[in-house]
Design a protein that fits this description.
heterodimer, A: 165 residues, mainly alpha, 5 helices, rod-shaped, B: 590 residues, alpha+beta, seven-stranded mixed sheet, five-stranded antiparallel sheet, 20 helices, 35% helix
Chain lengths: 165, 590
């Protein structure tokens, strides 16, 4: 049966027109991309990401602890400053200074005398009003005698305000 | 073979598939039931989820937050109080409070003994507190932080240390009645502390943070901070140094004259600023528990007294203002005057009728001469003058507990009231009101409301000047100057206030010696007087007004002898401190 069919097929092949078959050519085998570098790169990226994330987290937490510690130190310093300020105020209290002066056998200086130089606006020539206007705190005292603690360079703004006429 | 035999075996009897069908039916039903059950279970779970996630989400979230979140209150630091030169008068410092849960304290006697050594509180007292059947009892409050730390290191079971704040007054009793004090909760309950409590207190803050079961803060947990706003600092008009000198001078006078009490007010007439307000007896606001209520009272504004002859200034001012007299108006003044049928007024000493100018009447403080002038003036004009000078109403000074004084309306006056009012009896005023009267004369007739606040400094350091109320004219400038010259005569030779005179500055003022009313029997208490001197200096352009009142002096009682020396000392110190150059020629130095 197969022979018969082969015979029958031969003339048909002869009569078939020549077909233009595409030319076959040899191509290079498909090159497979190596998986290992990709795998390593991916693992490295993941590790780096996780490590970075952990590092960031640790850093943030470290900062948080540092901030807490600094805030605590700040509070302690503030408390200490206030306590020291209270001590200074207590030592500056007029009653304590007077007592210390008595213990040191010091006596009040008495009434000061005002000297009017010739030609100056002394009390004999000045209008009383000009001489009697209330001065800024500490005015009329020698620099060293200023008990108010006022200094020209003091940054506290109120002092400037108080020094205003 | 059975087939071969032709015997046909009957086909196996096929049972009807009833059972399988039933099984199939049952299986379907079961599946259906399972499906329904599953659906129901799913719906129940879904419903519950909806309830939890939608309807109860808020409350559950809050409940969870409550478990994790802790709120720590941040107390606001109370504002400081400065004097006019920025010296601290009051400030808050960190402190500790010690409390105990007596039920947790194991050895109460031993604990009390150990605490007693550190706290300085008697052991028996501590043991009594630890014996209480309570869960909470304070053992000590507002103790220094270091002491609290020492107690914490003892690790006594049932004894705990907590953060506290203590209000300190570094100068002790200086200006104590003006400053007032705070209660155990840190709220102002007297003086400036009470008056400006709202400003001084500030606003509490809070920290909200998540904590783990061990109580440690979760670093990346939810955390919110609402910072506390510190209280506003106050700058007063008080001069701390001058206040101290004033209090010392007053205490010495009260002691020397064996007086019951005394008050001094120093004011700036041009601004109404109070430079000092001193009272004796005084107290230490750092030790409230040991002070007496009488000592805590600010007598200068809370107590009233009959001003006596210092009130003649108002009679004189009204008479001059209305043109009833001039300083040179001459009058024959006897030593007694029968004003009403039942009342005859006398001078302090008997004398023959003498010709006196109005200036002499004031300088010598003649009761009769003053009442004669008041009679010409009339009761309505005298009463109106008292009202104009601020009698019968509060001055508005920024302190609580001010008395308005007592002044009776002219329409209700008895026959004698014209005479008593003219010489300062039958009318009651505060020391501050009297200081304001003389400040008005010193300020050319314009009354400035007295004030204690110079400015404020808020938490950001912003300075705000205190607002000043506008002045009110009471006298014409001419009348005020004329009256000032008359008052200068009081401290000159022949006047009643010579002990108030100073070498460096001209002084104007008036002495007062008033009898004290008997609140029980009526009338006046025999031997009970109030001696006073109120004046200003330099008389040409006054910088300070000083009012000195000594209550019930028993060793001498005339204002000219008990109060005038205090006036001289305080005024001299105030003028030197203000840098006022002497205006009188210096005596030759030998």
């Amino acid at each position: 049966m197969s022979a018969a069919s082969g015979q029958a097929r031969a003339p048909r092949q002869a009569s078939r027109p020549q077909l233009q078959l595409p030319r076959l050519r040899a191509v290079a085998p498909i090159s497979r991309v190596p998986r290992l570098p990709f795998l390593l790169l991916t693992i490295a990226a993941i590790v780096a990401g996780v490590f970075g994330l952990v590092a960031l987290n640790v850093s943030v937490n470290q900062q948080s602890f540092r901030i807490s510690e600094l805030q605590r130190q700040n509070r302690l310093a503030e408390a200490r400053w206030t306590a020291l300020q209270a001590d200074v105020d207590r030592l500056k209290a007029p009653a304590r200074i007077a007592k210390a002066a008595r213990n040191a056998k010091l006596a009040p200086a008495g009434r000061p005398r005002v000297v009017a130089w010739p030609g100056s606006r002394g009390r004999d020539v000045a209008t009383p009003g000009a001489a009697t206007s209330p001065a800024a705190p500490g005015a009329g005292l020698a620099r060293g005698d200023d008990q108010s603690g006022w200094t020209a360079g003091d940054p506290f703004p109120l002092k400037r305000y108080l020094a205003e006429p | 073979m059975p087939q071969a035999r032709g015997r046909k075996r009957p086909p196996p009897r096929r049972r009807p598939p009833l059972r399988r069908r039933r099984r199939r039916v049952n299986g379907r039903r079961r599946l259906l039931a399972l499906l329904i059950l599953s659906l129901l279970a799913f719906m129940a779970i879904s419903g519950r989820l909806v309830v939890l996630q939608v309807f109860d989400a808020g409350s559950l979230d809050q409940a969870a937050a409550r478990q994790r979140l802790t709120v720590i209150d941040l107390p606001a630091t109370r504002g400081r109080i400065f004097d006019r030169n920025l010296g601290d008068l009051a400030l808050s410092v960190p402190a500790r409070a010690i409390w105990a849960d007596p039920r947790l304290v194991k050895d109460k006697q031993a604990s009390a003994a150990r605490l007693s050594r550190i706290l300085g509180i008697p052991r028996a007292k501590l043991a009594d507190r630890l014996a209480l059947k309570s869960h909470f009892v304070y053992l000590a409050r507002r103790i220094p932080k270091l002491t609290g730390d020492r107690i914490q290191r003892l690790r006594l079971p049932g004894v705990f240390v907590e953060v506290d704040v203590a209000r300190r007054y570094p100068s002790g009793s200086v200006a104590a009645q003006v400053l007032g004090f705070v209660d155990a909760e840190g709220h102002g309950v007297a003086g400036i502390e009470q008056q400006y409590d709202g400003l001084l207190r500030g606003h509490e803050g809070k920290i909200q943070l998540e904590r783990d079961p061990q109580g440690r803060a979760i670093p990346q947990g939810r955390r919110s901070l609402e910072p506390a706003v510190p209280g506003t600092d106050l700058v007063l008009t008080i001069d701390q140094q001058l206040q101290y000198v004033t209090e010392q001078a007053l205490a010495k006078a009260v002691h020397d004259h064996k007086a019951k009490a005394g008050s001094v007010v120093v004011m700036s007439p041009r601004t109404g600023e109070i430079l000092t307000m001193a009272n004796v007896p005084d107290f230490d606001p750092n030790r409230i528990a040991g002070s007496k209520p009488e000592a805590r009272k600010n007598r200068a504004i809370a107590d009233v007294f009959e001003p006596g002859s210092t009130n003649k200034t108002i009679t004189a001012a009204a008479a001059l203002q209305h043109g009833v007299v001039t300083p040179k108006t001459e009058t024959i003044v006897p030593d007694n005057l029968p004003l009403c049928p039942e009342k005859t007024f006398h001078d302090s000493h008997s004398h023959a009728p003498e010709l006196m100018t109005f200036a002499d009447i004031v300088a010598k403080s003649s009761n009769v001469g003053t009442i004669m002038t008041a009679r010409n003036l009339g009761k309505d004009r005298l009463y109106q003058a008292e009202l104009d000078f601020g009698y019968g109403r509060r001055s508005g000074v920024d302190l609580p507990g001010e008395s308005p004084g007592i002044v009776r309306a002219a329409k209700d006056w008895y026959c004698t009231d014209l005479g008593t009012n003219a010489i300062g009896q039958g009318v009651a005023v505060t020391v501050l009101q009297m200081a304001s009267v003389y400040a008005t004369v010193a300020n050319n007739g314009v009354l400035r409301a007295p004030t204690l606040l110079r400015g404020t400094v808020d938490a950001r350091g912003r300075v705000a000047k205190a607002e000043r109320r506008p002045g009110r004219r009471v006298l014409s400038t001419k009348t005020a100057r004329s009256l000032s010259r008359i008052l200068e005569g009081v401290v000159k030779e022949g006047g009643t206030g010579t002990l108030a005179a100073m070498e460096e500055w001209r002084v104007a003022g008036k002495t007062g010696t008033a009898r004290k009313p008997d609140n029980v029997r009526g009338g006046y208490r025999p031997g009970a007087y109030v001696g006073s001197f109120i004046g200003f200096a330099p008389a040409e352009k006054p910088a300070v007004v000083v009012a000195v009142v000594i209550d019930e002096p028993t060793r001498g009682y005339y204002g000219g002898s008990v109060a005038a020396p205090v006036f001289r000392e305080v005024t001299g110190t105030a003028l030197r401190r203000l840098g006022v150059v002497p205006t009188l020629p210096a005596k030759a130095v030998r």
